[in-house]
Amino acid sequence: MTDVTLRRTQLATPASDEKMMHSAADSDADEVFLDLEDSVAPNAKPDAREPLIKAAREEDWSDKVLSFRMNGIDTQWWYDDLITVVGEAGEYIDDIIVPKVKSASDIHTVENLLEQIEENNDLEVGGIGLEPQIEDGEGMHNVHDIAHASDRLSSIIFGPGDYSAAMGTPGLDIGQFPEYPGHYWHHALSECNAAAKSAGLPCLDGPYADIEDPEGFRESANNANMIGCDGKWAIHPSQIEIGNEVFAPDPEVAERAKRIVDAYAEAMEKGQGAVSVDGQMVDEATNKMAQDIVETAEAAGIL
């Protein structure tokens, strides 16, 4: 049995909308994050904490990762976001998404306060994970340090919306640059993924804003998957099925990976350094790739 935590889809849900949070709990998303940041108006942010706490405590999240996105540490709200939400619903929260992370010290700032909140509320110290969101040039410059900033980290997330604004890119659509000759976010996502994987973490792509363009979302997810990312945001339930499909191994590939793992294990027992499977040589590097696919496929119920 595998212990892989799937994060193929990360469903964004405004913490101010009780109906949407209820629907999110019933969705097929691997992770749901209840958002106190961009999807909540500034004058509604303090009031959004109580519906979030209510949903965290009363809805059934047992089949998925439950997280919430706090406001950035450069705002007036982040401190009370942590104290109030974790203080009242910390036992139900798996992760906290930290937006607009610029350096490892941002993670340390959040971690130091979070540890005190856990201690003061008899929660397991270190039990709540952190997911830094990379959204500007400074964060991208420091992404490798950020990825190694804390043992609490659960993933690295790329945020294309604010990153677009920070980089001065043209257009107003998040995640879409159809006229660009290639994958627009190839470098940024590759950088985030390399940093994440150097720390043994999954990397998650951000949103694709056009919810009425399923094929565009699929292409965006495929691009991220080909780079090695482990999942992608869904900003509408209609995107979940596509994301779960794209970021799960193809069944035929999973079956072949299982044959490789089994054959390689048998070869190792016989003292062989390599083995042929389906006419192709398999060595330790191939076996490692196959093991990763098998673990993900088992977690996704494909094997």
UniProtKB/TrEMBL annotation:
It comes from the Archaea. One of its GO terms (molecular function) is lyase activity. Keywords: Lyase, Magnesium, Metal-binding. Its cofactor is Mg(2+). Residues 13-237 form the HpcH/HpaI aldolase/citrate lyase domain. Residues 1-24 are annotated as: Disordered. It comes from Halorubrum laminariae. This is HpcH/HpaI aldolase/citrate lyase family protein.
